[in-house]
Fold this sequence. Notes:
The protein is mainly beta. The protein folds into 2 domains: 3-54, no CATH class; 60-176, Polysaccharide lyase family 8-like, C-terminal (Chondroitinase Ac, Chain A, domain 3). Helices cover 11% and strands 44% of the residues. The chain contains 2 helices and 13 strands, in the order βααββββββββββββ. The chain has helices at residues 11-18, 44-54; strands at 3-5, 60-61, 64-68, 71-75, 85-93, 96-103, 108-114, 117-123, 129-136, 141-145, 150-155, 159-165, 171-176. A 7-stranded antiparallel beta sheet has the order 1-3-4-7-8-13-10, with no helix packed on it. A 6-stranded antiparallel beta sheet has the order 2-5-6-9-12-11, with no helix packed on it. The two termini are 27 Å apart.
Amino acid sequence: MRAEARFGTHPGHRKILLHPTPSGHLQKPPEGAKVFRLSDFKSPKEVRRFFDALYPPFYEGDAFVVKVGNLVVAMNSRENEDVRQKFRLPLKAGIVKYLEAELGPHSYLVARVGEEGLLIHVNGRIERVTTLRVGCEVEPMMEASPRGAVVDRRWDGEALTLVLSHKLGALDLRIGK
C-alpha cells in the first residue's frame, strides 16, 4: 500500500538502518531505501528539492495531510500557535471530487474514502468550529452524529459547505449518494 505525505517518515527505517548486527556492523539498508547525510547538501534549498522529488505534492494547502490507501489524516501542524490551516485534496469517492477543510489549532480530521463517498471523523477545540467543503458531482446526502454539531449547511451547486461545532465533542459524518 502506497503512503503519501509531504516529507513523510517511516519509523521503522531508523531501526533498520541503525541497528547493529552481532558483529557490530550496521545492517545494510533495505533495497530501494535512500540513505543520505546532511553533509551531502550545500544548502537548505537543495534539501527541499531532494524531498520535493521524493514526495511530490498531492494536495494544496498548509495543513499536514497523509493519505495511505483509502485513509486520509489531516491536522493542524502549528499546535502552539493560534493559526488556522487549510487543505484541499482531490478525491475519487463516488460522487465526491474533493475534500477541503480549514482546521484550527489542536484539531484533526480522519476520513475513509470509499466507492459510496466519505466517512469523516472530525475533532477540535470546544470553543472553535471547523469548516469543511466537499466538492460533489450532485448534491450529496449527509448524515452527522451528533446531529447538533452541524451549525451551517450550504449547497452551491458544486460543493457542500459545512460549519461544524465541537461543543458536543468529536463528530462523525457520512457524505455521499
